[in-house]
Amino acid sequence: MSRVTLTQFLIEQQRNENHIPADLRLLIEVVARAVKTISVHVGKGAVAGVLGSAETENVQGEVQKKLDVIANELLLHANEWGGHLAAMASEELEGPSLIPNRYPKGEYLLVFDPLDGSSNIDVNISVGTIFSVLRCPEGVVDPTAEAFLQPGRTQVAAGYAVYGPSTMLVLTVGTGTHGFTLDREFGAWVLTQPDMQIPPDTREFSINASRARLWEAPVARYISELQAGTEGPRGQDFNMRWVASMVADVHRIMTRGGIFLYPLDERNRKNGGHLRLLYEANPMSFLVEQAGGVASTGRERVLDLQPTGLHQRVPVILGSRNEVERVVAYHREAL
Ligand code: AHG
Ligand code: MN
Ligand code: MN
Ligand code: MN
Fold first, then answer.
1. What is a GO molecular function of this protein (predicted)?
2. Which fold does the domain 204-334 belong to in CATH?
3. Distance 63 CA to ligand 2 centre (A)
4. Who contacts 282 (Cβ-Cβ below 8 Å, separation ≥6)?
5. Which atom of ligand 1 sits closest to the CA of residue 113?
6. What are the pLDDT digits (tens) for 108-159?
7. Which residue, 49, 72, 154, 243, has most beta carbons within 10 Å?
8. Are 85 and 110 in contact (CB under 8 A)?
9. Which distant-in-sequence residues (6+ apart) come within 8 Å of 92 by Cβ?
10. What pLDDT was estimated at residue 304?
């Protein structure tokens, strides 16, 4: 059986007519290597004493888990050494992390959510890593937060790793969304799901329903229609799934379709939403669009938002085209 590895895939992407630059290919390889190391740590669990809280607080006001801190350090150290970056930004850091002078610098900015779904670590449920690659604005030497404030449509690559029963890396460089599975014996990423496609229709939705009383009218209407099943206006039953690790919920949608919503609600309105635009919404929206899905805030395309802050939060509604478009239409009608 001939297996295409991540390295082969990226070299072919570099050679074909869409040719990604060599330094972007090498940058992605460094990220993939760091992710492999995170996967080892996540996989050891209690044996390595990596579960539980670190008892520090991050800039989001969250108590960090030990693995939030470990994953963040692994990504920072692997990538500052790599030579292709001007700076990095992370969910776990207040401001940009610059490249130490002892290392060469490059033209890209790397943005990441080192450990997504960290409330699930201690209960042994899938967690992940999300990343996004932007070009550093021309002439900027030591990038400040401002350099990162680019609309998601300018991303040159994005991906997530999901540490589940198997470890997977799902990647886009703007030529479709492609899934790789980690072969633990060989240490290789094997292309197992080329050109992933999100089906346009679905009977599965994903939302934290404990917040139902806080939703805006268009979301409340949409979800109640789904819950009404065969007796409601949709005339069919819908199933619900909520892992509370965005990577796992999005990965399910990438695999078999679905709609994911973390909408604006009465309580998160003061923050602009729940999920982070740069670390979560933009990379996931790029991956979803490249797989034929749609990603919106309910009011506009996620990838068209002009970011105003590194840690900005936004509403996110993404997945199967026809369902997301329906929710967007309900917003248009109501607001
Ligand atoms: P993180 O663990 O990186 O802070 O992200 C958590 C996010 C996301 O993964 C998930 O979809 C959502 O928060 C879960 O929110 P609830 O706690 O409301 O379920
Ligand atoms: Mn967090
Ligand atoms: Mn997250
Ligand atoms: Mn996180």
1. fructose 1,6-bisphosphate 1-phosphatase activity
2. D-Maltodextrin-Binding Protein; domain 2 (3.40.190)
3. 8
4. 111, 132, 152, 155, 158, 302, 303
5. 3
6. 999 999 999 999 999 999 999 999 999 999 999 899 999 999 999 999 999 9
7. 72
8. yes
9. 58, 59, 64, 68, 69, 72, 114
10. 98
Structure tokens of 170? 């799902």
Averaged pLDDT score across all residues of the chain: 97
pLDDT tens-digit readout, 171-214:
999 999 999 999 999 999 999 999 999 999 999 999 999 999 99
Contact 240 CB / ligand 1 (< 6 Å): no
**ipTM score here?**
0.98
Give the start-to-end residue ranges of the domains of the chain.
Answer: 6-193, 204-334
Residue at token pair 């292309």: 191
Ligand 1 atom closest to the CA of 260, numbered from 1: 11
6-193 against 204-334: fold identical: no
Q: What would be the CATH architecture of the domain defined by 6-193?
A: 2-Layer Sandwich (3.30)
**What number of CA atoms fall less than 13 Å from residue 68's CA on the CB side?**
24
pLDDT value of position 1 = 63
- Give, in order, the Cα–Cα distances in Å from 299 to each of 105, 151, 278, 325, 334: 38, 16, 18, 11, 11
CA distance 334 to 328: 10
| This prediction's pTM | 0.98
Ion ligand 4 neighbours, Cβ < 5 Å: 91, 113, 115-116
